[in-house]
Structures
1.
Amino acid sequence: MSENDLIRIFDTTMRDGEQSPGCSMNLVEKLTLARQLERLGVDVIEAGFPIASDGDFESVCAVAAAVRESVICGLARTSSEDIERAARALESAANPRIHTFIATSDIHMEHKLRMSREQVLEQVDRAVRQARGYCDDVEFSAEDATRSDADFLVQVFTVASEAGATTLNVPDTVGYTLPEEFSELIRLLRDRVPGAEKLVFAVHCHNDLGLAVANSLAAVRAGARQVECTVNGIGERAGNTSMEEVVMAVKTRRDSFAGLDTRIRTAEIYPASRMLSSIIGVAVQPNKAIVGDNAFAHEAGIHQDGVLKAPITYEIMTPQSIGRPSNELVMGKHSGRHAFRERLLELGFDLEGEEFQLAFRRFKDLADKKKTIFNEDIEAIVADTTIDRDERFAVKEVSVLSGTFAEPTATVELVIDGEAKKGSALGVGPVDAVFKVVAELTETKSDLLRFHVTAITGGMDALGEVSVTVSEDGRRVIGHGADPDIIVASAKAYVHALNKLVWHKLRRGVSEPKGI
Ligand code: KIV
Ligand code: ZN
């Protein structure tokens, strides 16, 4: 494939994706995801916004040190502090990129930046030159490009390119554009920005009108060669372009995207999707294209009959092509270490040493209680066992008394900073009682915003998964826990959320809350 036929996949799950409510990830989670993105073959990983907080800075540093194949990118506004901080965070990257941006629409310049066009042009020139002083790979984005004056946009991109930017990004920041309009804009920019043939034009679409993927594909037809996207389409408001949808559209409709391709190893798509869902505790909708539970389920009799005779009748791609493991190979109490490790790898988890042993022990314990272990059960075990050495709190024992004759009472033992602590409390229900003890023992004062319990797989012996949304000082986090006993799962979920709050507090940085 020639450079011109390559559609570069720029993944911003850890930056724009993380900006969606409840999708924040800690350092260990970001590293785990970054390794999966590298296995997936994404060209660029936008690892964070280093000036936003110390946590973001550390995450970009860690991802930059761990990932060797993909380009690692850090976001920066045009201020020199932002760019310097991004450059410092990327110091150990094998392939660093600084991504700097400023808004170019009259609406943003007047109401948000309070800057004239001339001032914005000066900022672009200065910021890109400064970034080029640190690395050769510099991307410039004109925020709100689709609502910007086209002549001004040409001027902005010309300045950015003359200052040394190698990738010019055209964001549809508010998800406003339409496919034909967007492809015209890309054509216009490629015609009018001097030296366009040596530059990579990128697009970054938001999904406010449900058009992010359509707009990105229209831009590719018009010559854009980098698509910015996220796993499962997470991101600000209605989300970003969904990586799996763009990649599979190009692959499945090769006839229509003649000669073009991505470097994505599509068999890693499903593991990446599941991994992200289990990290952030947000499942994709069942009918989500490519990775939703129903994406390959055939319910109607006529469809089932057709698929059994020849899958091509109703399947335009195979589940295997995106790495969906079959649930047919059932795991149970007779499955050994080897089978368990294989299934973990299929699901995108490469656990080693202590973590693997712990997960295997939990798998065996569950298999003693539950006849069939499904992939979802294994994902829950992994989410529950991945060791975060920074975690202050862990659940040791939980016991409750409740029902129609008893006043709900809970006794909980936690390990706090390595020391066991026990307490009891009454509550309006068993979960309330457990949460009261946990709050008392951890000396935390957070608000519980949402409590959600689901059976991970069918059957009376299903594993229960609890997700809680908790907030403290305006910071919202989601915690999850799984256990055959939903009260224990609730305690684990609550403690998981409190650990996330501690993590954010420890790394609270220069300009909270983060995001742009
Ligand atoms: O949506 C947007 O405009 C952005 C830019 C920083 C690229 O996220
Ligand atoms: Zn965005």
2.
Amino acid sequence: MNQHTLSRRLAQVAAHVPVGARLADIGSDHAYLPVALMHQGVITAAVAGEVALTPFHAAERTVRENDLQAQITVRLANGLAAIEPGDGITAVSLCGMGGETIRDILDSGKARLNGQERLILQPNGGEQPLRQWLMENHYRILFEEVLHENRFDYEIIVAERSGPVVYSAEQLYFGPLQMQACSPAFIAKWQRTLRRKQTTLVQFQQAHAVPEQKVQDVTRQVQWITQLLG
Ligand code: SAM
């Protein structure tokens, strides 16, 4: 993967960035996403935010080597603190982090959002708490998908602030749109997850002193997944 050839995962994320957007890519690492989108003529400006020094330097290098310093600003910052009011950001991407981390970044930085930005999120696990945050903060999920690459299941969730929205517990767990679409990748992910959860339940039965709440949670999830796949 590089700034010219994105992974399938980042290429799918890129496909949801609106033409003409001013993008904040938070946790940008090498800044491949904003640089590729700039080369494709999709975005007009970007901020690449990084909290860690090594990826921050990597992002600076990619931007410099592509001669895009005038269009892409690289900032060493924690989460949405990379966004400044004058940036006029219209889309925010947070990719390749756990769903809880993405949720925490959104929650602690929400004062930096004006509510008009499209959020393009690619959590690695922890999708349920992330969807919960979206619902509680009045973001409607506009698009979501599962994709399988390099033996991992990745989810992409695109959301915009729309006013109050209500999702059921199952919708928060599986994704409201994915439950409807039931794509082959989605079904395959949940078949794999079901096998894992069933193994976990057997281990719980063999182990002593597993908290009852934990057993109940996994049992409920196995029921939901079985119903979904049925
Ligand atoms: N977004 C890229 C992608 O999807 O390929 C890079 C993903 S990399 C696994 C996660 C990056 O997020 C790391 O470079 C890490 O330093 C950065 N990161 C983690 N927490 C962050 C935070 N609170 N603010 C900014 N960057 C963060």
3.
Amino acid sequence: MVRRQNVGDEVHLRGLIELSNHCRRNCLYCGIRRDHAALSRYRMSRQEVLACVDQAVTMGYGTVVLQAGEDPVLSGPWVAELVGEIKSRTNLAVTLSLGERGQAEYALWRQAGADRYLLRFETSSPALFERIHPSLPGVKSDRVAILGRLRELGYEIGSGVMIGIPGQTYDDLASDIMLFAELELDMIGVGPYIPHPETPLGNETATGPQQPPASELMTYKMVALARLACPRANIPSTTALATLNLQQGRELGLQRGANIVMPNLTPVQYRSLYEIYPAKACIRETAAQCHGCLRGRIESIGRTTGTGRGDSPRRRQDAPTAPEPQKQ
Ligand code: SAH
């Protein structure tokens, strides 16, 4: 009800392109962490990315999301040139999800036309965050501060958390929801934490009365609470959720408050290497198969596929004087 009143029945599609699985970080939960030496690493070429972008246009998506590990070889100017090229040849909105980078790079990418930035704060507990996401030497990770600066640069900002991280508490989840509201996020992604056996955290068992389960049900509760706390946010039904319930996870996420899905456009030969957690849903499907499957799922529950870019409804209402998105 709150979802329908605030963001309607449309489900917007964001084409996800996983540019690179190189990463300079060593997050304890993540399968593409630096120390996962057995993982083959890849980095897409500009031409490969642009071929995926063309597919996004063909399939009628309004947005492409460029995501990667924290890969310094994806340099500031290289990414800026790529964003500029996408903006000049299409009407797509461009969302970046490239981790913690310098302010000058964020500014450069915004100038090149990037519209949105996704950076999950992963958990609102500073102690838990520092434990599972070690800071790089000499630079303390402060994702909340970065989100504030991204907003000042004019990005729509997105963040989110994992649910059921070992050592997390129910109080932490409540604080996560309050932080979503405080940050006035345009986009909120929440998904279950899925243990990866090749990571330090993947071999820890989580117990205790305050430990929330990394379950489907707990994820639906968090999606629903995120919608109630931030009624006009764009909220995806995530791949991690679909991984826990391949039959119905996507649909149930959409029926509990979500209004976005992110079909994967990454070329099949790279998909299995972007293994942030194991048994990820949709890992073998081609872009066309993902597209057909997701559209079918949206229609099966009586929703419609969104047209246009699916910009932040929160922004559209709050900032009627904001400049129109650039059209070429
Ligand atoms: N390097 C970028 C993109 C990371 S991948 C960044 O750090 O922002 C996107 C998201 O996948 C992460 O923010 C995290 O919330 C999620 N993720 C990573 N490992 C996971 C795991 N084992 N289980 C569930 N989600 C995971």
